Amino acid sequence: MRRVVVTGVGAVTPVGNDVPTMWKNMLDGVCGIDKIKKFDTDNLAVKIAGEVKDFDPTTVVEKRDLRKTDMYTIFALAAAKEAVEDSGIIGTVDEKRLGSYIGAGIGGLYSFVENTRNLIEKGPRKVSPHFIPKMIGNIATGQVAIKYKAKGVSLSVMSACATGANSIGEAFHAVKDGYADAVIAGGAEYVVHPLTIAGFSNMKALSTTEDPKKASIPFDVKRNGFVMGEGAGVLILEEYEHAKARGAKIYAEISGYGNTCDAHHVTAPEPNGEGLAEAIRIGFEEAGVTDEDVVYLNAHGTSTPMNDKTETMAVKAALGEKAYDISISSTKSMTGHMLGATGAIEAIVSVMALRDGMVPPTIGTDEVDPECDLDYTLGKAKKRDLTVSASTNLGFGGHDTCLVFKKI
Questions:
Q1: Which tens digits make up the pLDDT trace of 277-287?
Q2: 249: which of 113, 123, 193, 285 is 20 to 30 A away, CA to CA?
Q3: Catalytic sites, residue numbers
Q4: All structural domains of the chain
């Protein structure tokens, strides 16, 4: 059986534009959520988000090409650049055995809105010839593949907020099943925009708390919605023997992937959490997790009333009494909810936690909901001799995912 390992990681987030910075800030409990800076929020009910800060797009895209490329793709290229350089994979694998799986929950929203406005206000001739390849949700996969001559398996997953996790899970199986020797996998998003703020706000999904540091408070009895975020996360998944033969740095082994659907409601999770529980069971079984393993779970933990309660139920249904022994945290308390990128970032967090034996905290949460009765690592990071880490993600439409990593 082919084993699959993580040999490179890259990130662009509200708490750091590379993995070392992001990881340090998370362990320190730094909150990346703040007042929105990129547009006027006077007429919006919600005025906070987890925005990427001090990011220079010309570090990954030539200045002349910026007008041809949506920022979500630029984020993906930046995260991929860090991951590829971190892994040293290029030049060690046949181009036809290197894949690209980069997903987006929405894609080029800014490009879509800009060109829609041009069409309405100025007419069809003012719609950019670059509009379609800037906007489409698969173009980050294509751009990353072009950049690194990845001529093998290629897929762009779009499963809402489970996108990043599904991209990584499908890439894991592609390598495990022999369709590739390595895949550049992850997710990207750039949709903190008045349109999405208004849309999510009007459906009562966003937090109405005005204090940025008290808006995303997963598992707290006072939680009232999620905070939008943005960014990208990319991992290099590589066949173990190939990685070992070239002397690659190995972060962890990816060893399990659960992928199910609630088939219940377009936005709400199944109330008893059975769909997610089944994804956790599948992932943990494929990974061969035992009762002796010391486990960290990076929860989806959106800070919405339904998600946090349902996710707690799902973890207990899947793991039984062991649910009370594992360490859990929601790093969305620091980044906000990065939609299509969130599963990829949280997979990287899971890998880093396993590598360093450190559980990042859930910040901002003061009074835990009695219906959320597990160990959520409140306030401060915690040292544990972890042998397994996992990440759960859910998406509108009922998508449930669980990625499982093992220490190697």
A1: 999 999 999 99
A2: 285
A3: 161, 300, 337
A4: 4-245 (3.40.47.10), 256-406 (3.40.47.10)
